[in-house]
Amino acid sequence: MSYLENIRTFVRVYELGSMSAAGRDLRISPAVTSARISQLEDHLSVRLFQRTTRSLTPTAQGKAFYGGACSVLDAVDYAEAQVTELTENPKGQLHVAAPLGVGRRLIAPHVPAFTTAYPLIDVRLRMTDRNVDMTAEGLDLAFHLGQPADSNLRIRKIADVARVLVAAPAYVAARGHPADGAALLRDKHDCLNLRFPGAAEFQWLLQTAEGPQRFRVAGRLESDDGDVLTDWALCGQGVAMKPRFEVAEHLASGSLIAVAEATPPMPIQMACLYTHRRHQDPKTRLFMEFMVERIAKAIRAAETPS
Prior knowledge:
By secondary structure, this protein is of the alpha/beta class. It has twelve helices and 14 strands. The chain has helices spanning 3-16, 19-26, 30-44, 60-85, 100-107, 111-117, 169-175, 181-186, 226-234, 244-253, 276-279, 282-303, and strands spanning 49-51, 56-58, 92-98, 121-127, 141-145, 154-161, 163-167, 191-194, 203-208, 211-216, 222-223, 239-243, 257-258, 268-274. The strands form four sheets. A five-stranded mixed beta sheet has the order 4-3-5-14-6. A five-stranded mixed beta sheet has the order 11-8-12-7-13. α10 (244-253) packs parallel to α12.
């Protein structure tokens, strides 16, 4: 077994805190994961982890080894990137994350063209509306809506994305057409909210004559999937706040209509997130440049009145 692969496995076990999670991430079995850690421990003549039936924690030696192991992997990855830079056919796996709506509408449709242009790059696209931990999840690049929580990440801004409050005509007919954010609260409209781990109470940041204001909204339905909120809005279940590009077709067809137009939502930033080390990799730069241009064009098209 390659000593370098043993080190790589150790780093993922350390970061994920689980043999099985690291195995899934590396696409190897738990038995292979355990064997690699055991071989590394035998080579170093130390225990890197304390194992029980319910937990796995790094020892003092494991904590000390982790920093050096990361430096080794960084050096190898950088060296490989330098060699790849000199070739016309960069190769390897590229791990990318994106919110569900962004991934489905703006990224996934262009992946086939990217892999046709760069056939030796394997794209692993993970789509979720929760916040991701780029280090723990082994990501090269993440597309993100809003301000990132991790200030250590590099940010490549793509666009300020317009948002809109929408509801189905049937909902408006039954509950009325709220003119602004104050009407949403006064008339106790059902607001459809995006929930993810760690989210605070639901507050919609709307543009008012006095400047941006937060409105603490409420409703009977919430989900951690933004597309589910769109589906519920289409079914007449309430008012949803959506990036305009996600509901442009529904607005054009009339299956959804804009509400509270006097106080529209504040735009939200869309950006690419990456670590300094990941940016050294030509695969990451190629994918980012390829997608940024196409995403920005799609957002502009969705926000341009037809």
